[in-house]
């Protein structure tokens, strides 16, 4: 009798374990859950992954690193990736600054990279500020290419190359916006004239030389948090989709149009970008934080979920 009870209990335990394993598997694979809810409890972080190197404005060679967040014990083989850049007016900040949103998205199944980029390390002028923006842009392109190179070689991160998103906060958002919507010499002339074009072309053009050359830097969309673009007319209907979050009382980066980070450079903020994007038929959403300052995102309880929802809707 005791032996029968033991065998029954063992069989029940085995069945329950298999059932729990199957439930976990279903949760990970269910398109209604994965990428749209927090289905993972823990995240693994690979810190200081080198994705490239380049020379700063002062002439110093520097390595370029990112932290990569992945859902722990994930079984999916084709995962969207979100590459984020921190804020700091191109003179400060660190990839660890975005650990909260990176962890949040990774728990939904995304692979998330939070990257460092080259800073403005010479006397700030309008020209050097614009050069710093483009330096950060080509660094971000090297980060995107890093994952496409990995797909071709080792497939370590199991990325879906058709679902690559970029974004960031403040300077990081400015970087992502110029990555997505500055694509030719005419736009570079508008930003800084022929001198600026010469600078960009001398550094490898809009793709740059920060690493992983020859691989694709194509992206699907941009997550813009308190960012701006030099001119909203740079956006075309066939370019990456856009999701923006911005406070209406931002005094650092304009919500509408104004001085960008006290540089004397006039730029178009998220409201104008959204208006123009929708007017030409490009998918765009704007989360407006009424009376919000530059850091309004940090106090927005719903913003992480709304970013996740937008990403999910575009997969």
Question: What is the structure about, briefly put?
Answer:
The protein is an alpha/beta fold and 315 residues long.
Note down, in words, how this protein is organized.
The chain has 2 domains: 1-30; 42-313, Rossmann fold (3-Layer(aba) Sandwich). 36% of the residues lie in helices and 23% in strands. It has 7 helices and 11 strands. The strands form 2 sheets. Strands 1-2-4-3-5-6-8-11 form an 8-stranded mixed sheet, with helices on both faces. Strands 7-10-9 form a 3-stranded antiparallel sheet. Helix 3 (126-153) packs across helix 4 and helix 3 packs across helix 5. The longest helix has 28 residues, at 2-29.
Key structural traits:
315 residues; alpha/beta; Rossmann fold; 2 domains; three-stranded antiparallel β-sheet; 7 helices; 36% helix
- In CATH, the topology of the largest domain is named Rossmann fold
Number of domains: 2
Query: What would you say the CATH architecture of the largest domain is?
Result: 3-Layer(aba) Sandwich
Computed Rg: 22 Å
Question: What is the H/E order?
Answer: HEEEHEHEHHEEEEEHEH
What would the principal axes of the Cα set say about the shape?
globular
The CATH homologous superfamily of the largest domain is called Alpha/Beta hydrolase fold, catalytic domain
Number of continuous helical runs? 7
């Amino acid at each position: 009798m005791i032996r029968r009870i033991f065998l029954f209990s063992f069989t029940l335990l085995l069945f329950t374990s298999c059932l729990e394993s199957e439930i976990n598997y279903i949760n990970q694979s269910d398109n209604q859950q994965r990428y749209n809810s927090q289905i993972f409890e823990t995240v693994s972080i690979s810190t200081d992954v080198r994705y490239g190197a380049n020379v700063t404005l002062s002439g110093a060679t520097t390595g370029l690193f990112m932290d990569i967040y992945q859902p722990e014990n994930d079984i999916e083989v084709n995962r969207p990736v979100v590459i984020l850049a921190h804020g700091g007016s191109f003179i400060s900040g660190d990839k660890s600054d975005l650990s909260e949103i990176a962890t949040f998205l990774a728990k939904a199944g995304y692979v998330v990279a939070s990257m460092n980029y080259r800073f403005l390390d010479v006397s700030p002028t309008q020209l050097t500020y614009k050069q710093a923006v483009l330096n950060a842009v080509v660094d971000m392109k090297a980060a995107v290419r890093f994952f496409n190179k990995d797909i071709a070689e080792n497939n370590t991160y199991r990325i879906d190359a058709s679902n690559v998103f970029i974004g960031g906060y403040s300077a990081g958002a400015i970087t992502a916006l110029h990555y997505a919507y500055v694509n030719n010499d005419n736009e570079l002339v508008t930003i800084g004239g022929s001198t600026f074009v010469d600078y960009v072309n001398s550094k490898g053009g809009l793709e740059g030389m920060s690493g992983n050359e020859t691989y694709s830097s194509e992206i699907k969309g941009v997550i813009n948090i308190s960012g701006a673009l030099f001119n909203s007319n740079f956006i075309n209907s066939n370019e990456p989709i856009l999701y923006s979050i911005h406070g209406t009382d931002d005094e650092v980066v304009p919500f509408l149009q104004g001085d960008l980070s006290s540089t004397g450079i006039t730029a178009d903020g998220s409201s104008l970008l959204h208006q123009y994007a929708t007017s030409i038929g490009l998918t765009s959403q704007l989360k407006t934080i009424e009376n919000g300052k530059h850091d309004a995102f940090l106090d927005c309880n719903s913003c992480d979920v709304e970013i996740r929802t937008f990403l999910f809707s575009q997969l």
